[in-house]
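Reviewer 2 asked us to include a model.

Predict the structure of this chain.
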Amino acid sequence: MAERLQKVMAQAGVASRRASEKMILDGKVKVNGKVVTQLGTKVTGNDAVEVNGKLIEQAETKEYFLFYKPRGVISAAKDNKGRKVVTDYFSDIPVRLYPVGRLDYDTSGLLIMTNDGKLANMLMHPRYKIEKTYVAKVKGIPTNDDLKHLRLGVKLDAKHKSAPAKAKILSSDKRSDTAIVSLTIHEGRYHQVKLMLEKVGHPVKKLKREKYGFLTLDGLTAGQFRPLSHNEIRNLEKLVEGKRF
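Predicted model (structure tokens):
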């Protein structure tokens, strides 16, 4: 993502943003060997920026992407078994990206990819309670009591009970004895959605994450990604900032 030249200079510790602007106006800054005097100039991590003849070391540009993870892909930067990982889809992006959280190998859906470790850690922290909506194809057709248990929280194991969730049936098929269920949670325990549905007697046959906070998969198919807009990035920051301060 391109940033204003004076901001890049300030982040690199050259000078304050205002002082950096004066250096640009005074003709002391070169980008890729050419003197730049326009304050609106934007650069990326691939551009060579010189100040008073010295090349500055740019801070890594922050990148943010919304990725539609297919099934059969590992939510990691690498895999020691040689299986396909989410970063394989970003080989042309010139920074190292990491997934925010994870989706199971056999689960598809929305995943945020970024190199902004601070924001990623905050989004994953349970205190911020970011809502995530999953759509599951389950065995059997849940009853009203089953949905009530999901909404109140179910016991996952001897020590843990899920927080209250939003649950509803989207469709059902009596002939195949299956249903499509929407489940919205804000926790992120290992296999949580699968465990919750299994505990009420409806094992998951197929699972997809369709929503993360306000973000959706609209316009994407499995394996595709798009950069997040400035407004989307700011709104993600607001999700955690509003609950932090």
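Residues 238 and 245 are 11 Å apart (CA to CA). The longest strand covers residues 204-212. We have added this to the supplementary material.
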